[in-house]
Design brief:
CATH topology of the largest domain in chain A: Arc Repressor Mutant, subunit A
Structural class of chain A: mainly alpha
Number of domains of chain B: 1
Strand order of the largest sheet of chain A: 1-2
Number of strands of chain A: 2
Shape of chain B: globular
CATH superfamily of the largest domain in chain A: Winged helix-like DNA-binding domain superfamily/Winged helix DNA-binding domain
Largest sheet of chain B: 8 strands, antiparallel
Helix content of chain A: 55-70%
Number of helices of chain A: 6
Distance between the termini of chain A: 40 Å
CATH architecture of chain B: 2-Layer Sandwich
Number of domains of chain A: 2
CATH topology of chain B: Alpha-D-Glucose-1,6-Bisphosphate, Chain A, domain 4
CATH class of the largest domain in chain A: Mainly Alpha
CATH class of chain B: Alpha Beta
Order of helices and strands of chain B: EHHEEEEEEEHH
Helix content of chain B: 25-40%
Distance between the termini of chain B: 32 Å
CATH superfamily of chain B: START domain
CATH architecture of the largest domain in chain A: Orthogonal Bundle
Largest sheet of chain A: 2 strands, antiparallel
Oligomer: heterodimer
Strand content of chain A: 5-15%
Number of strands of chain B: 8
């Protein structure tokens, strides 16, 4: 999983409503209306959560059907299950950028 | 030593830069914003608060290309310029149950700096015990199911 993907996946999982939506989808696909039912929030709010989950690769949504039922996407969750390796990679990438940044500011300095 | 319910990640890097510079990259918001990332995410300066002293708070908010926000909150536990920084990330708004990073900077004497980052991350085992444990618990089971397949 790419690092930005991992971030959005972790970010998506940080929200309790979104975790509840995923748990519901673990039982089978559902429409926005069905997903909204147990929550004291608007359909728009549920749609927004679904968009976040979709972007994180945690769900897919039907394209053709009017109701666009949501479906759990197992792969991203599986990778989250192995989060230690993923998180290490995330930090390795971050420190790569720190190294690049240190190079850049030193170049800037000597050029002055 | 790993305590129960925690995972540790240790990463060592040697940078071709003097220690003071590496320290500043960690402790000055203008610099942190340049590398904190991740790719596709920005960390706008006006959304960074860093009170770099023992007990001081930090808050960074990452913004993705399509506008999603990812806040990170925590406290500086130790600030020993320019050699040691201990950050504690809070569990709030986070996917883990809190994490502590001990970052040490060693001057190698030849213009290079060794940085060692040692993270202790409190894991989802604790998450299961929380109020919404039913929910994340079923997710864990699902992940295990997928793993076993």
């Amino acid at each position: 999983m790419a690092v930005d993907q991992l971030s959005s996946t972790f970010s998506a999982l940080a929200d309790p409503t979104r975790r509840a939506i995923l748990a519901r989808l673990a039982q089978g696909e559902a429409t926005v209306n069905e997903l909204a039912e147990p929550f004291p929030i608007t359909l728009q709010a549920v749609s927004k959560h679904l968009k976040v989950l979709e972007r994180a690769g945690l769900i897919t949504r039907g394209r053709s059907a009017q109701l666009r039922p949501s479906r759990l996407q197992g792969e991203a969750l599986k990778e989250v299950a192995d989060w230690v390796a993923e998180y290490r990679g995330f930090w390795e990438d971050r420190f790569d950028r720190l190294g690049d940044h240190l190079q850049e500011i030193q170049r800037g300095r000597s050029g002055q | 030593m790993t305590e129960a319910g925690a995972q540790e990640i240790r990463i060592r890097r040697v940078f071709d830069a003097p220690r003071e510079l590496v320290w500043k990259a960690w402790t000055e918001p203008e610099q942190l914003a340049q590398w904190w990332g991740p790719p596709g995410w920005t960390t706008p300066l006006d959304l960074i608060t860093m009170d770099v002293r023992p007990g001081g708070a930090f808050r960074l908010t990452g913004i993705s290309e399509d506008g999603a926000e990812m806040p990170q909150d925590g406290v500086y536990r130790e600030v020993v310029e320019p050699e040691r920084l201990v950050l504690e990330e809070s569990a709030e708004n986070n996917w883990h149950e809190g994490a502590v990073s001990v970052v040490t900077f060693t001057d190698l004497g030849d213009g290079r700096t060794e940085m060692v980052s040692h993270m202790t991350i409190h894991t989802t085992e604790e998450m299961r015990e929380r109020a919404e444990a039913g929910v994340s618990g079923s997710l864990d089971r699902l992940a295990q199911h997928l793993e076993a397949r």
